[in-house]
Amino acid sequence: MAERNQGVVKALKANSASVCDICDLNFSERYGVEYIEAHHKVPISTYSSAYILSQDDFALLCPNCHRAVHIYMKKDGLEYLEIKKKLRYQCAL
Ligand SMILES: [Zn+2]
Ligand SMILES: [Zn+2]
After folding, report:
1. How far is the CA of 62 from the centre of ligand 2 (A)?
2. One digit per residue, pLDDT tens: the chain, 93 residues?
3. Domains in the chain, number
4. Domain of 8?
5. Distance in Å, CA 30 to ligand 2 centroid
6. 3-class SS at 33?
7. Global pTM?
8. Dihedral through CA 72, CA 42, CA 65, CA 9, nearest 10?
9. Neighbours of ion ligand 1 (CB under 5 A)
10. Element (DSSP H or E) covering residue 14
């Protein structure tokens, strides 16, 4: 399963700009390097082993937002979309 996921993530990164889903940071423009992290929107433990991941199951995030998402997941048990809403609102302030 891990190998199949890597294929999906690789394809997703290849097809997308290095732009954070939450703060819209364009990593390659800002830092001059192509870098972005893939985040599983749904915790892996909730998938059945027969489930085939698609690119929609991932969000591309900059390292800062990615870390913040994981902290919120742990702290408040929020789902990705709730955290995204929360963080996007904070970014806009
Ligand atoms: Zn970000
Ligand atoms: Zn993650």
Report:
1. 10
2. 566 778 899 999 988 889 999 999 999 999 999 999 999 998 767 777 778 888 899 999 999 999 999 999 999 999 999 999 999 987 655
3. 1
4. 2-92
5. 22
6. coil
7. 0.84
8. 160
9. 20, 22-23, 25, 62, 65
10. helix 2-15
